Amino acid sequence: MAMLFTLIVAVIFILINENSIAKGLILGTLFSIMNFFLLGKSIPMTLGRSRYKAGLIGLASILSRYILLAIPIIVGLKYDSYDFIGVVAGIFSIQIVTMVEYLVIRPILDGK
Q1: How many folded domains does the chain comprise?
Q2: What is the domain extent for residue 24?
């Protein structure tokens, strides 16, 4: 759902000739999706492990995901063809869509 939302917003920015914002949104969202994929893979790896091994797996997961998220941020800062604010907004797109779904869409569908 986050990718669909981002693509719709990116197309709007392309139509108003703001290509760098659109590219930043898409780049940030792609890396955000990869971040959540890695998070989902690392959590089950800690189950059934000793506290020490689970801590090491958790630390490795955090460090690898921080490094992964640094890539689009560096690209957004270094290249003018990617808007930095668009990249940051893309990185937070999954959290934004999740919050909107929880606060707006779910109450509407539940009839509240």
Answers
A1: 1
A2: 2-110
